[in-house]
Amino acid sequence: MKLTLDVWRQDNPAGPGRFETYQVDDATPEMSVVELLDRLNEQLVETGGDPVAFESDCREGICGACGVTVDDRPHGAQKNTPSCHQRLARYADGDRIRIEPLRSGAYPVIRDLVVDRSALDRVITAGGHVAIAAGTAPDADSVALDFAAAEMALDFAACIGCGACVAACPNGAAHLFVGSKLAHLAALPTTKAERGKRARAMIAEMELDFGPCSSYGECADVCPAGIPLSAIAVVNKERLRAVLRGRNT
To answer: Might you name a Gene Ontology BP term for this protein (predicted)?
Structure first.
């Protein structure tokens, strides 16, 4: 099928951006959005053009690197699905598709569809880790952990850090991302020693680059990992807990 693509082109972070229009004549319903960009780039290279810069890695819905905005929606029209799994079956011959970067003030464009998502990395660096001295690794069954708590921790730990939640939010909030990290670490006994310190550090870093949460819910609709909207409540819960418990708990 033939598809007309309006693709965002931007030569460098300081340069002006613009949409450029291309046509792909041999797209198939089985193709993903990322594979469509591959085909477009093959055409551009064959004709001596400049290929579109975009990111991808695993193409299995695991890494989140492929995130772009398709027709004003992060990743694409299908809910909770990364760009590399967004298939073209929903389009018909002759349709027009607009592809641009993930849009957020926290994500400056590097080139074309590639954005700088290091603001998310800075949140993790601030506290999304375990820094306690663990010593010799204990036996797997030596630390008691309730099954329900373990399952909850795994559900929240599924966040792949693609950043689509921020791009979907009208306020550019990162509460779904930060809440998922705080929730899964707070649920585990081996990481609770730094719980308050972690919450203060991560939330303070988050507020430097991201907006406030107004509970719109768009973030949960686009999250490829299916992180529930309840994760946003964890941010204020952990913030309040850290204030009430003091600086070291």
So the answer is: tricarboxylic acid cycle
